[in-house]
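Hi C.,

You asked whether I'd gotten around to modeling the 880-residue construct. I have! Everything is below, sequence then structure, no commentary in between.
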Amino acid sequence: MRKLILFITLIAWYANGFATHNRAGQITYRHVSGLTYEFTVTVYADGTSNAFARKDIEIDWGDNLKRDSLIVSSENPIDPSDRTITKRIWKGMHTFPGAGTYTVSVEDPNRNAGVNNIDNSVGVPFYLETTFRISPIGNSQNDSPQLLNDPIDEACVGQPFIHNPGAYDPNGDSLAYEIAKSKGVSGLDAPGFYFPPNMSVDPLNGDLSWNSPTQAGQINVAILIKEYRNGVFLGSILRDIQIDIKPACNNQPPTIFSQQEYCVEAGKTLNALIRSTDPDNQDRVSLSASGAPFEVTNSPAMFNTSSPSNPVHASFIWNTLCEHVQLKPYEFSVKAVDNGKVRGSVNLSTYKTHYVKVIAPSPDSFRVQSVGNSTVELSWKDGKCKDAIGYYLYRRQDSSGFVPDSCTTGVPDGTGYEQIADVVAASANNFLDDNNGKGLIPGIKYCYLVVSYFDDEAESYASKEVCITLDKYVPLMTKVSVVQTDPTNGAIDLEWSPADSVDTADFPPPYKYLIYHKVAGGNVVLIDSTLSINDTTYTHNNINTLEVQHEYTVELWSYGNGVVKAGTAYPATSLLLGLSPTDEAMQLSWSSLTPWRNDSFVVYRKDYNTNNFVPIDTVATYTYLDTALINGETYCYYVADYGSYDIKNIAIPLINNSQERCARPVDNVPPCPVLFEIESDCDKNSLKIKWKKGEGDCKETLFKYQLYYSPTIGGEMELMGEANGSTFEYLPSADKNSGCYSIIGIDSVGNKSDFAEPICVDFCPYFELPNVFTPNGDGINDLFEPIPADNFPSSKNYRDIDSIDLKIYNRWGELVFETTQPEVKWNGFHRVEKVLLTSGVYFYKCLVYEKSLKGGIAPRLLTGSVSIVSGKSGDKKQTE
């Protein structure tokens, strides 16, 4: 017996001695060449088992070829002053057979004991996996994210906890984070695993937050770190994390004070100040940092911090280079740890993720100069960062005053600038702008910006704004104004400004203008000419100005040495006004295409007391809503365009009128959806629909209500009834209880509201069986059938039942009766022998198929017994 006890003791000692007591870890990799990768398995284990820790670990490459045994390459405590946790690293290289998606995994039989959220954790294998993709089209050159923060942390009951994996992707790929379950045998969920309440992972920065632990002990949880490049999934790392929760302690985690987002121009130095304090004012705090800025090859960032104190200060210093420019901000995590253990408590920590955006300087020496009468040349230099792959050019009329702040790249929306060109960096550092062949308009001030961009779509700061106004070498249209509104006898006044100077050597006098006209979809037609260069007005008569927009241009022709065209004005259209009547309002909208700048529009409405048009508002947009009108009354409008050129000798403003339009407001606005509720009572088999008048802007009196019904969720609504405008409830018919209901409101002129949000009332299935019946022929309780509920209004003894599957057995297990009819109506006779069964207890199983609002049939199992009290003797032999 003593030998047996000793043998068992040795077995236990051997098992414990060679256990690794794994607590946390992950698998990462780097690309070596071709299809060859080096994998690193990192496991954090109980440091007290170091003397007997296994040196090898088996890795499954996921290619169904073979598994390898890796030999440990290093093992060191994560804290030299506390050897409780040891970090063990295994490395191994593997060449994969070809393109594909592989899951590389490690399964080790020894997880540490005492993990609260894993059943019998000491008997659950410790499992890690990493999935990665080798693509035949270029994604094989990839390294996994590197995880810079140890996955072991301490927490305290009642105190908020935060942990960050410190993920850094050496290829600049995008990372996304998910909370995941710890795994066990063959990658299956660890038995009994559960997520602690109030725990989550930030999908963007990986912060694992827990507010707050309620039970002391150890818990494990995993973070799934997904890697993407240009939206394409590259792989994922399942990182197992362990949190050691101490009992309620007299300590709070430190607080970090710092700006979270920073922007810096490449080539300049970022110096960010970070401070941390202990809320208890009892502990000293130490700061550390990790992340991408510290891992870059050239000019990595520095983190200078003072000795532990309270408060403690640090400086994040980064001398940035052009090679650091990228679209995705760099992330770095700052960890603050207090020394609560000195007071017999626990060291608590806090993480804070920071973001640094390194932005390229704008291109240098951006200039603009005229080239000919309607073209300008833009030119620039590369700027300080020479690896831009191209340039975006932007233009707008007149200056915007836009100056980018330290974090604004490119040209944002809302500046009024439009992109006009994309110039490849290798091709040129200049661009000719002729407005896509249409020519730029003389007299308009054009302003430009240039932005460089890079291969990952990062953009530089925008350049300083440069502007130019072209000289007036051609005529300029200044007026296209409707002076008479009529479908056949309308008239439009035209005016133009002559060219400032004409080259008389090439274009000798005399001169005259040819006037051209077109309507939408039509051809350009010569309609008239003038007598001299100073004749710059014309009235176009007998045209449809009520409904048609007209476009005009003029050409200057020289007749001194043959007939030669000396210049063409940029075309201009009339201002066309449209009206859209609505309820007690008029929606005005207008359009025009003009060479001058449209600065504002004045809206005029006719005053019927004076019969004159009076201004009612000035706007900068092409729409206007005139409200507080009377339905059925006639309202007439026109709009005046106030415009300008950037030339001194052209008068300001240029005023051009639209045609006059009249219309009557009409109630064509549907009422608001009806607010309603349903009162349903299954016991009484009743349903009442109730609603009320709208609230806020929806108090319109309705003429009537239409009520709709669908028997299923999402089904087509059918009209089931109407109620007048003074009624605010409705009782559906008895067969319309379960289902979905909605209401449409109709106003006095027939406008219908949208369907109200449906309210669905589920079925009220009812089916119960008695435990005794007396088939003695006295007419009382002779049949075994469902029991009606109290006050059951239906003629049936059941409700909302599709069918049943009832089987009744005697005490020897013989089937004596079966039916699928919900009425049952069993008279107590044997299903085969057709004789009345003897008095006694019989057992049943009944599947009741209940109707469901979702469109399906849901089974419910009833089991029980029923006693037959017949008062008669049946054929006992047949029943036994």
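If it helps when you're writing up: Helices lie at 2-17, 292-295, 876-879.

Thanks,
B.
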